Amino acid sequence: FQPNSGAQGEYAGLRAIQAYHQSRGDTHRNVCLIPVSAHGTNPASAQMAGMDLEPIKVTLDGGIDIEDLKEKVEKHSKNLSCLMITYPSTFGVFEDQVADICEIVHQHGGQVYLDGANMNAQVGLCRPGDYGSDVSHLNLHKTFCIPHGGGGPGMGPIGVKSHLAPFLPNHPVVPLFSEEEDEQSFGAVSAAPFGSSAILPISWAYIKMMGNKGLRKATQVAILNANYMSKLLENHYKTLYKSPTSGLVAHEFIIDVRDFKKTANIEAVDIAKRLMDFGFHAPTMSWPVGGTLMIEPTESEDKQELDRFCDALICIREEIQEIADGKMDTRVNPLKMAPHTQSQVINSEWDRPYTREKAAFPISFVRADNKIWPTVGRIDDIYGDKHLVCTCPPILSEY
After folding, report:
1. CATH topology of domain 6-167+188-199
2. 0.90 cut: is pTM over it?
3. Strands 135-137 and 52-56
4. What single DSSP character describes residue 113?
5. Spatial distance between the Cα atoms of 231 and 238, rounded to a whole number of angstroms
6. How many CB atoms are located within 10 Å of the residue 147 CB?
7. Using alpha carbons only, what angle is made at residue 137 by residues 156 and 298, rounded to the nearest 5 degrees?
8. How far apart are CA 349 and CA 176, in angstroms?
9. Where is the Glycine cleavage system P-protein N-terminal domain (predicted)?
10. Which of 7, 64, 262, 328 could bridge 41 with an S-S bond, Cβ 3.0-4.6 Å?
11. pLDDT along the chain (399 residues), means of 10
């Protein structure tokens, strides 16, 4: 329970794998295989653990390229430490050959680290250890009810198979193992022996209250919601990756909006900003594929909310088509000028070539009595990303 985040869980799991290899005299095993579709923290954690990275290609349908995996495994057979894999993949697809992938790595003496970021599509349905994972972390702040927003704290405890258990993190002040076992542990990953232990009762209570059936139902609904939304949007946006066998997605899916740049000068960021006028926070933008939006509805929202979100995206798609058809300017339009603040809409001057109503109340479910107003209009995101120190005027200048 020591890791305070998923990334710390990754690091702890990789260090446990390293300690395991070292205990067997395989100190040369330091190559970590990582699919190019992996979470960005995967290569970062492997680098911090001192491993050499080898990327694995993915196929057009979002799965791991088995032939490339076999080639890389053969190439690094003597020095292979582990494979880091996310299941279902970050592209929102269940790997049909996940058990075979794990077996290939095991045949060459490697271990399998499963990134638990997408455990919301597995709880109650499958167990990572059954299909080949040796170690995995659980994001309690994602899958098990601890709030994810507001800066945390998070929890990323790891689970391991028995052969890796002696190499789990220990603590210099509060020993977690016997003296003999402590000699095999690689050390600590956080200041407290059990991480942010005060928030663990949240996950415990959630699991106890949900029970086996409830946890399984939550997973099933999360997968159902993602497929429902993908189906609703299929005539308006392309779902980038689907299972080649079932044609379905996992608990999340990616919509491809890159072509709109050519036809209407609209990018993913414009859609994200426009969603604010509909009262929605944008989904993950330009990751894991640049110029796309990744939608992960989870099990938490009801069907009416999912419908409203899809209706908002469909309405935005119609606005994009108006721009493409020349009915609206490519630079001054509801998407490029979004979000629209209350002060802008009630200002006596309105020089935009679309109505105030279209700007602030673009669809029937957005009304004056439930409108969530953005506090600021469009800002320069790129400038903000490059300049970490606030360039706002001093507070005293306002008085």
Report:
1. Aspartate Aminotransferase; domain 2 (3.40.640)
2. yes
3. unpaired
4. E
5. 10
6. 12
7. 80
8. 67
9. 66-169
10. 7
11. 94 97 96 91 95 95 94 98 95 94 98 96 96 96 83 88 95 83 85 92 96 98 98 98 94 98 98 98 94 96 98 99 98 98 96 97 97 94 86 65
Total number of residues shown for the chain:
399
**E strand or H helix that includes residue 55:** strand 52-56
d(CA 203, CA 93): 26
pLDDT at 228: 99
Question: 303-324 and 200-233 are packed helices; what angle lies between their axes, rounded to 10 degrees?
Answer: 40
Task: Give the pLDDT of residue 204.
Answer: 96
For domain 257-384, the question of CATH label 3.90.1150 is answered with: yes
Structure tokens at 248: 């379905």
- Residues 117 and 86: beta-carbon distance below 8 Å: yes
Q: Alpha carbon 240 to chain centroid distance?
A: 16
Distance of CA 29 to the CA centre of its chain: 29
**Closest of 150, 154, 187 to residue 168, by C-alpha:** 187
Tell me the helix, strand and coil percentages in the chain, rounded to 5: 40, 10, 50
Residue 130 makes CB contacts below 8 A (sequence gap 6+) with none
**What tokens appear for 173 in the block?**
């002040």
Encode 48-58: b = buried (16+ Cβ within 10 Å), e = exposed: ebebeebebeb
Residue 237's φ and ψ, nearest 5 degrees, are -135, 145
Sequence-ordered list of residues with C-beta below 8 angstroms from that of 265, at least 6 positions apart, any chain:
323, 330, 331, 336
The domain segmentation of the chain, as residue ranges, is: 6-167+188-199, 257-384
State pLDDT tens for residues 342-385.
Answer: 999 999 999 999 999 999 999 999 999 999 999 999 998 888 88
